[in-house]
Amino acid sequence: MIELIEAQLLDPFRIGLIVALVITMYRTQAVTGTFLPLAAGVVFVAAVLPSTQGNGAEDLTRAVTAGIVSNLIILGIVLALAMIVRRLRG
Question: Taken in order 54, 56, 61, 67, is the CA torsion positive or negative?
Fold first, then answer.
């Protein structure tokens, strides 16, 4: 499981989707809020990427679970960087 999380943490497509999720969240924050779009996006990315690869039902459950963990780690890093950028911009 640890190897799967490490592989997902280095996936550039997953990182790009999480960055786009945070950008979209900031643009629509007044209408949709913060928590719900981020939670839905994390679960969506975690489910879509392994399900399009088609490794089987047993592996899909492990991959989605590991994907949620890795997405939350990436999301935390991206949110921290976004906060730093927003503070530097003023």
Answer: negative
- How do the domains of the chain map onto residue ranges? 2-89
**What global pTM score does this model have?**
0.90
Count of positions (residues) in the chain? 90
- One digit per residue, the tens of pLDDT, for the chain of length 90 reads 888 899 899 999 999 999 999 999 999 999 999 999 999 999 999 999 888 876 665 688 898 999 999 999 999 999 999 999 999 997
- Transcribe 21-32 into DSSP letters: HHHHHHHTHHHH
Q: Tokens in use for 81? A: 């960087």
Helices (H) and strands (E) in the chain, counts: 5, 0
